[in-house]
Amino acid sequence: MSASDQPVRVAVLGNGPLARPLLDALTNRTPGARVVAVATEGSTPNPSAITRAMGAEAVCVAAPVADRASLIVAALEAGIHVCCPAPVAGDLSTLDSLILRAAETDAIVYAPNPLRHWLPLATLHERRRTIGAPIALFAAHRTTRAITGDLFTDVVLPLIDVALWLVESEVERVQVMAERLFTNGEAEGADSADAALILLRFANGVVATLEVARSLPDAFPQAEEVCVEFLGRDAVLRANPTNQVVTVTGTAGTVREDWLPAPAVSIAQTFVETIRTGATAPQSLLDARWVLPVLEKVRLAAATGEMVRVGGALRR
Fold it and tell me: I need a surface site. Which of 1, 57, 169, 256 has the fewest CB within 10 A?
């Protein structure tokens, strides 16, 4: 077997929501990958130590956002390829530091937005030109109430990325209403919000309405719901990716199975194929750099309750 035919040796780090799906995708759904190490019980191991002990040449990071930057830095210093689904970092200074470190190595850094890897959204993106001149975008992302973390970094940021990906224009101004409506605890301003309504005005005239909320009951059969509608002068495209399921009712009750592959499958396969072919990562840290400045203005608009202008040309 030649070196190019050898499986890519991958470690999975962290215990976030994507850890188990990524592990399953790499183990069962990704030809050319072999999982050699798993650390998902809240630990943050040093990737270089994993390389020495288990021979990992790549890592998939599924840790909480606050831990991701340090894991990426350690991996890059060890020359290990990195897959870290967005959000990679919650602030520009951390992200810029990671971009500089990545530029100093030959390691691949793949920073995919999981929302882009739902097949209906990928199909909607492919067909976006068929709607004619775009007019408006609506996107909603709702999660169960038990999911914790920062609403803006964890939920709003990936949705902003989807809006930029679809609309392909500069964001000129934003307006936000954010409140704590569904979960227990004191409402202490926008930082404690569990729901937000965000308006983005683009330079090409498109208005995007983004709705995010931790509103689903914890007993809900799926941990999240996503809905996207893109309106143009000639047509409307709609995608409900997380609702594409098959249910089977029998003596054991009702069993729900996803009809479409989960995003982790596409992410894992793309990462491994990128390593094997030496191609450029389809979503890099530089792609993440387009989203964070808009998120910072969204945070400001949420805190002040006022419309905020976005300076500069923030466009993909």
Answer: 1
